């Protein structure tokens, strides 16, 4: 039954795309991290033992010379656009599954170029030309053609390793045979099957997809539930669309036609957000979520940008907006647009049932907590992961030591006890409360002089060379009204590289500002302010 | 003569509004609780949902944190933007719950840190914060938001019922304030000439605004020796503000 309905797909795969964008040259260990976990690495890094999903520290422990780069999907998408454009000339209706991975329906182009193998060869050449001098850090492009998304992506990734395109003959038996010798781990790597399910399969002795596919379907459903049945269908070369996937009824598309041409991409993205929320809301009313989205933008002069976007787990409003932004930025960058944008349209091509997340009926969470957690997720999408922070206790003697800010994505917002447990003190030399309300980390430059205009020094016996009289901070000079200190602190004297000897002062200026200044190796700095 | 009568009427109206015009239940739903030292200072003894409160003066940051501490202690989330150096230890001492504190840090725009937020980005960030948090503390970093954007955001704030506490110089930012708290004449205690340590700050907080016909003022420990805010007991009667004559 499956063979007839499974679409014939081609996939172009640029291996380790985030690493390529990060500018890795062949032989250089590079790892791209996202939320403190490795999400991509170069071949050299893999040889040193770095794996996907490792913590940053673990990666650095495996390979101290590794270059760590932060994940920047925006940049990945922007650079990938050159490949998309080059391939898009040859192949219509491209779908950017993610930066580095292109999917398209193979039938038409294969006929046009005289066979699937010829088409695949041509695509490799086209993409390589588009990349020009970009170093692929020692790997090669992969093109795979097969029945269904799963087999096609696997084929493309295998072809990248083999160094030549890989075409799997049409039909369910050949697809199943191709997959049968491969590891079951492909299920989690490519198809998003939970890693614990795959792990369980391995512990049950099924190392290869063939062994898993040989199980009776009913038994798999009984033992592993719907996730297992889905994985089983994939392993057997069957239809790999999510259960409940349908083509949405016509008229679900949302669009905005502007009265005035819009020239600013931010304004368009803002409209895109409203459209996305509208679309997601309409789909959610049916209990559905969009997995394939067509984004179209058109200028006043008829220039058009059309892209298909896919996400197997469904596109949230934030994810849609992100893709709209990628598309518009790349469009504006690669094409000299002659007019402002007149129309923006979001068209759901494929929707499927939304599993959703059911909240516990009772528990410690309040409505305010739910709202806040949702807002934090939204803020991360808008402002970036490194920009949204929550406090974590770490303990220490300096004002910026007691608490530190950590990215909210790395913290459990609703279970904060562990994060905020202050490490057992005592911290001798810690200043008594009140604590300063403004902390400068890193410390701001500051200059403190005595009555003779000389910089005040701290003597070896813990005194001052002369009482401080004036302080210069941020371009203004103020007279010191009263002061106290120095309070010396010697930290980590047992560790030659991290040891610090500092002296602290409180300086009250005549305008009422109370500053916490530190002196380290004769240099003054403003550590905090009691604002 | 006429001006005095008008002022008296305004005072009476304000007193009415405080007593009975707004029913207690509605008032509670439309307000957020504050710490005890603020109860006598603020109209209705609470923060009005949907309002913008400005905190100015040398103790402005401490004042803003102390204002946010009341709702925070009652379960509200506090979102901070444009104030990258907020001292968490001070906030915790003043009564803010650290587990419900979120900071949005604008990139500095130098090196690999990313570009600074433009107006549209600020609009999105602040809109998300308004939707999710009951109390917003907006520092000088948000002063670059355009006036039009700020107006739209304030409309959203009113619809959602959050409270924005703006820190910075008076009239510096784009957010028009309903209520301003000015913390001036700060006197640090405990600091000598080369000895001692700062133990607390005496500060006179003055409240003014549309709903406050006469500026109210009270001397506060901001913060006190334990880092908390507290009212300074007066030994010589209440301070009577000067009345305009003629």
Characterise this structure.
The complex is a heterodimer of chains A (531) and B (246). Chain A is built from 18 helices and 21 strands. In chain A, helix 14 packs antiparallel against helix 15 (317-334). In chain A, a hairpin with a 4-residue loop joins strand 10 and strand 11 (304-310). Mean pLDDT of chain A is 84; it is low at 356-365. Chain A has a 9-stranded mixed beta sheet, with helices on both faces. A 7-stranded antiparallel beta sheet of chain A has the order 15-21-20-19-18-17-16, with no helix packed on it. Chain A folds into 4 domains: 2-170, 3-Layer(aba) Sandwich (MutS, DNA mismatch repair protein, domain I), CATH 3.40.1170.60; 254-353, Dna Ligase, domain 1, CATH 3.30.1490.100; 367-420, no CATH class; 438-529, no CATH class. Chain A is α+β, with helices and mostly antiparallel strands and 531 residues long. Chain A is elongated and about 90 Å long. Chain A starts with a helix and ends with a strand. Chain A has helices at residues 2-5, 17-21, 43-47, 56-62, 73-90, 107-112, 116-131, 149-162, 172-180, 186-190, 195-203, 209-213, 217-235, 265-285, 317-334, 367-383, 399-402, 417-420; strands at residues 8-13, 30-34, 37-41, 67-70, 95-98, 101-105, 142-147, 166-167, 254-262, 288-299, 304-310, 341-353, 388-393, 403-407, 438-445, 447-449, 470-473, 476-491, 500-509, 514-520, 523-529. Chain B has 246 residues and is of the alpha/beta class. Chain B has a domain at 32-184: 3-Layer(aba) Sandwich (Rossmann fold), CATH 3.40.50. Chain B is built from 7 helices and 11 strands. Chain B has helices at 2-21, 24-29, 36-39, 60-73, 88-94, 119-132, 147-160, and strands at residues 31-32, 47-48, 52-57, 78-81, 101-104, 135-138, 163-167, 179-191, 196-209, 212-221, 230-231. In chain B, strands 5-4-6-7-3-8-9-10-11 form a 9-stranded mixed beta sheet, sandwiched between helices. In chain B, strand 6, helix 7 (147-160) and strand 7 (163-167) form a beta-alpha-beta unit. In chain B, helix 6 (119-132) runs parallel beside helix 7 (147-160). The termini of chain B are close together. Strand 13 (388-393) of chain A pairs antiparallel with strand 5 of chain B, so a sheet runs across the interface. Chain A: Pfam families: IMS. Chain A: Residues 26-152 form the UmuC domain. Chain A: One of its GO terms (biological process) is DNA repair. Chain A: InterPro entries: DNA/RNA_pol_sf (IPR043502), SulA_CellDiv_inhibitor (IPR050356), UmuC (IPR001126). Chain A: Keywords: DNA damage.
């Amino acid at each position: 039954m499956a063979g007839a309905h499974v679409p014939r797909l081609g996939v172009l795969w640029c291996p380790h795309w985030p690493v390529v964008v990060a500018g890795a040259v062949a032989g250089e260990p590079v790892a791209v991290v996202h939320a403190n976990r490795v999400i991509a690495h170069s071949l050299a890094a893999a040889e040193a033992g770095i794996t996907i999903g490792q913590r940053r520290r673990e990666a650095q422990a495996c390979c101290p010379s590794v270059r760590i780069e932060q994940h920047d999907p925006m940049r990945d998408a922007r650079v990938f656009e050159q490949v998309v454009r080059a391939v898009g000339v040859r192949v219509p209706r491209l779908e950017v599954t993610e930066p580095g991975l292109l999917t398209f329906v193979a039938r038409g182009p294969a006929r046009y170029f005289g066979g699937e193998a010829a088409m695949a060869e041509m695509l490799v050449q086209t993409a390589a030309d588009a990349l020009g001098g970009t170093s692929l850090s020692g790997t090669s492009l992969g093109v795979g053609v097969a029945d269904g998304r799963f087999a096609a992506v696997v084929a493309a990734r295998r072809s990248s390793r083999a160094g030549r395109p890989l075409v799997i003959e049409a039909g369910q038996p050949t697809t199943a045979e191709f997959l049968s010798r491969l590891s079951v781990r492909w299920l989690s790597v490519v198809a998003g099957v939970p890693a614990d399910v795959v792990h369980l399969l391995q512990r049950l002795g099924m190392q290869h997809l063939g062994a898993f596919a040989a199980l009776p379907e009913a038994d798999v459903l009984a033992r592993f539930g719907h996730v297992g049945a889905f994985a089983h269908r994939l392993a057997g070369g069957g239809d790999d669309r999510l259960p409940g996937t349908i083509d949405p009824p016509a008229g679900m598309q949302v669009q905005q036609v502007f009265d005035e041409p819009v020239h600013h991409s931010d304004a368009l993205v803002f409209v895109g957000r409203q459209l996305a929320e509208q679309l997601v809301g309409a789909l959610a009313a049916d209990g559905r979520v969009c997995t394939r989205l067509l984004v179209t933008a058109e200028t006043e002069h008829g220039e058009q940008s059309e892209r298909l976007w896919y996400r197997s787990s469904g596109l949230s409003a934030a994810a849609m907006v992100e893709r709209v932004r990628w598309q518009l930025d790349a469009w504006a960058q690669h094409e000299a647009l002659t007019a402002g944008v007149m129309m923006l349209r979001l068209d759901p091509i494929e929707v499927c049932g939304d599993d959703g997340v059911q909240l516990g009926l009772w528990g410690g969470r309040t409505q305010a907590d739910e709202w806040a957690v949702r807002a934090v997720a939204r803020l991360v999408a808008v402002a970036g992961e490194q920009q949204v922070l929550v406090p974590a206790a770490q303990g220490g003697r300096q004002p910026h030591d007691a608490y530190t800010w950590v990215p909210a994505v790395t913290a459990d917002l609703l279970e904060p006890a562990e994060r905020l447990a202050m490490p057992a003190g005592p911290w001798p030399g810690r200043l008594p409360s009140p604590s300063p309300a403004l902390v400068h980390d890193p410390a701001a430059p500051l200059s403190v002089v005595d009555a003779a205009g000389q910089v005040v020094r701290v003597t070896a016996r813990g005194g001052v060379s002369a009482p401080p009289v004036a302080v210069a901070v941020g371009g203004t000079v103020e007279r010191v009204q009263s002061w106290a200190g120095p309070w010396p602190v010697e930290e980590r004297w047992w560790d030659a590289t991290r040891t610090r000897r500092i002296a602290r002062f409180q300086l009250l200026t005549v305008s009422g500002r109370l500053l916490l200044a530190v002196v380290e190796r004769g240099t003054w700095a403003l550590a905090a302010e009691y604002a | 003569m006429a001006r005095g009568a008008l002022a008296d009427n305004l005072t009476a109206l304000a007193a009415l509004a405080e007593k009975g015009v707004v029913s207690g239940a509605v008032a509670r739903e439309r307000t957020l609780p504050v710490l005890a030292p603020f109860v006598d200072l603020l109209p209705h003894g609470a923060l009005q949902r949907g309002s913008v409160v400005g905190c100015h003066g040398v103790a402005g940051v401490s004042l803003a944190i102390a204002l946010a501490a009341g709702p925070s202690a009652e379960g509200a989330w506090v979102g901070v933007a444009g104030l990258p150096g907020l001292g968490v230890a001070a906030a915790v001492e003043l009564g803010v719950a650290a587990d419900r504190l979120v900071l949005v840090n604008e990139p500095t725009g130098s090196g690999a840190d990313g570009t600074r937020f433009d107006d549209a980005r600020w609009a999105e960030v602040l809109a998300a914060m308004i939707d999710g948090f009951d109390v917003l503390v907006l520092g000088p970093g948000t002063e670059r938001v355009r006036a039009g954007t700020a107006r739209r955001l304030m409309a959203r704030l009113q619809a959602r019922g959050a409270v924005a506490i703006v820190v910075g110089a008076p009239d510096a930012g784009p957010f028009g304030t309903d209520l301003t708290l000015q913390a001036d004449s700060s006197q640090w205690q405990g600091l000598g000439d080369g000895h001692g340590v700062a133990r607390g700050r005496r500060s006179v907080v003055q409240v003014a605004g549309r709903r406050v016909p006469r500026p109210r003022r009270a001397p506060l420990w901001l913060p006190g020796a334990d880092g908390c805010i507290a009212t300074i007991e007066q030994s010589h009667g209440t301070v009577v503000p000067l009345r305009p004559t003629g």
